[in-house]
Amino acid sequence: MITIKTKEEIKILKEGGKILAGILDELCAAVKPGITTGVLEEMTKRLIKKAGGRPAQFGFAMPDKRLFPAALCVSINSEIVHAPAMPGRIINEGDIVSLDFVMEYPINKKLRAGRIVNKHSKLGGYYTDTARTVGAGKISEEAKNLIKITEECLYIGIKQVRHGGRLSDIGVAIQKHAEANGYGVVRELVGHGVGYDLHEEPQVANYRASSQDIKDVTLKKGMVLAIEPMITIGDWRIKTKENGFAFATRDDSLSAHFEHSVVVTEEGYEILT
C-alpha cells in the first residue's frame, strides 16, 4: 500500500533527512586510500547515535532471515549496492566508493516530545535514505565521468516529481540520460517508498518499466520516495557476491549509485536528504 505522509510527519522527515545528509557529508570526506570500511561503519553508528537516531539497516531481517551485519553499505568499484561495511575492508587508491544508509529518527522520548509518533515502528521514528558515490584519492577519468553522469541522472529523475505526475516519468528520464552517455541502467534493483518503514511501496524504477514489471501510479502530494539510480559503465545485469548481501555488475565493470529521499509537493518536490 502506498502511504501519504502528513505535514507534521514530513516536518520530522525533513529534520531527520537534514541530519542524515550531514552525516553523509562527513563520511564522504573521510573516504581516502587506506581507510577501512570498518572505520566508516563506526563513524556511522557514532554520528547517528549522537543525533538521536537509529541505523535502520543494522540487524535488518533479509528475505532469507539473515540479519544485515552493518549500519552502512560500502560498495566498491563493481559493487552496485548492499555491500556491508563489516567485516572491514581496506579502500585503495583509485577506488570508487558508494556509501548508502538509512536512519530512523527520532527514537527517544525526549526528542519525540510533543510530536506525532510513527505508529508503524516500535521505536516511533521516521525513516530517510540516502547514498552517494565518491572517489578515493586519484581516480580515472572514466570513473569521474560515471560518477558525474550518475549524479545527473538522480537530479533529472527528481525533476520529474510533481503532484499529478506519473511515477514512470522518473525512470524514463533517468534511462534516457544514462544511455545517451553510453551507460547501462540496472533493472533488477530499484528505488522505493520510504518514511514509515525502510522499504515501502511503490517501487521506483530507473528505466522505462513495463506494467508487468512495476505498477505505474499517479504521484500525490505527501508521497515520499527514495529515488536511487544505479548506473554502470558496462553491462547492466547483476550478480550476487559471495557474502550473499552485495550485488555487483555481472561483467565486473564499474558502477555508481546516488540516492535522495524526496517528498511530492503541490508545486513539485522537496529533497529531504
Overview of this protein structure:
The structure is a single chain. By secondary structure, the protein is of the alpha+beta class. It has one domain (7-271): Creatinase/methionine aminopeptidase superfamily (Creatine Amidinohydrolase). Helices cover 27% and strands 23% of the residues. It has helices spanning 7-30, 37-51, 109-112, 141-158, 168-180; strands spanning 54-55, 73-76, 79-81, 96-105, 126-135, 184-185, 191-193, 200-204, 224-227, 230-232, 238-240, 247-249, 255-257, 260-264, 269-271. The strands form four sheets. Strands 8-7-9-14-15 form a five-stranded antiparallel sheet. Strands 1, 2, 4 and 5 form a four-stranded antiparallel sheet that branches. It is globular, with a radius of gyration of 18 Å. The two termini are 23 Å apart. The model has no long low-confidence stretch (mean pLDDT 96).
Percent strand: 15-25%
User: How would you state the average pLDDT, rounded?
Assistant: 96
Strand order of the largest sheet: 8-7-9-14-15
Question: What is the oligomer described by this structure?
Answer: single chain
CATH homolog superfamily:
Creatinase/methionine aminopeptidase superfamily
- Secondary structure tally, helices: 5
Spell out the key features of this protein.
Creatine Amidinohydrolase, single chain, 273 residues, five-stranded antiparallel beta sheet, 5 helices, alpha+beta, 15 strands
